[in-house]
Amino acid sequence: TVVGTSVEGGAITAYHYGNGETELLFVGGVHGGYSWNTVLLAYELMDYLKENPSAIPPNVRATVIPVLNPDGLNKVVASDDPTGRFSSSDVATASDKLTAGRFNANEVDLNRNFDCEWQAAGKWQNKTVSGGSQAFSEPESQALKNYVETNRPKAVVAWYSAAGGVFASSCQNSISAETRALTGKYASASGYPAYDSFEAYKVTGDMLNWLAKNNIPAISVLLTNHRDTEWDKNRAGIEALFKNYLQ
């Protein structure tokens, strides 16, 4: 399902596996080429679900959006594959290109463009970054918003890099019991540490916190580095979530 397009017209596509009514949504590539390994992880999940349909509980539908920020990915990845697939050898490793790949074609950090404590000037490490002209000013953020509001997934997992941990979501309120449970289950199965919140610096306009604001359990999984997909760890976490929603 094409759920939207980027600033430059790139398709933002959702892939569906299983036929159940309980939808679990997995999102990669929010930071495009800066976190290109999250896109490869999403592709690994897609291949795994296609090859192992019995891994999905009968009451569950797994949806994967591998690249929310295709324009940012295209700043870093040069692939001739018409499907958009790429390998690590297709990635430009210059630090300036990787940094540029974090943002969409409007130079907005999409993970600062959602409606939870949104600010036009956001923070990333010690840098000031654009959160857009207003919450959901960017077509990529709108695409995710529209999909979530239309389909109301039971839970959402988004992958980022790199800090190595599973982070719960909340928006000016306490962490929901289900979000806390999902954080613990994914962390325990995968071996990543679990955290109630991201404390390295103040984050505004965060996508997962916006989901929490809308009462959708959501967790951020930060890979350990910017290269590896850590597939075995994440597969274990994903399977733990499937088991959690098995009926």
Outline the structure in words.
This protein is an alpha/beta fold and 247 residues long. It has a 7-stranded mixed β-sheet with strand order 3-5-4-8-11-9-10, sandwiched between helices. The protein has a two-stranded antiparallel ribbon with strand order 1-2. α5 packs across α7. The longest helix has 16 residues. The radius of gyration is 16 Å and the shape is globular. It starts with a strand and ends with a helix.
What Rg, in angstroms, do the CA atoms define?
Answer: 16 Å
- The gross shape turns out to be globular
Strand content: 15-25%
What is the CA–CA distance across the termini?
26 Å
Structural class: alpha/beta
Strand order, main sheet: write it out: 3-5-4-8-11-9-10
Percent helix range = 25-40%
Number of helices: 7
Detail the poorly predicted runs: none
Number of strand elements: 11
Outline the biggest β-sheet. Answer: 7 strands, mixed
The succession of helices and strands, N to C, reads: EEEEHEHHEEHEEHEHEH
Can you lay out the helices and strands and say which pair or pack?
Blueprint lengths: L1 E4 L5 E3 L1 E3 L4 E6 L8 H16 L8 E6 L4 H5 L20 H6 L20 E4 L2 E4 L8 H13 L3 E7 L3 E4 L8 H14 L3 E2 L11 H7 L4 E6 L7 H15 L2
Parallel strand pairs: 4-5, 4-8, 8-11, 9-10
Antiparallel strand pairs: 1-2, 3-5, 6-7, 9-11
Helix pairs in contact: 5-7
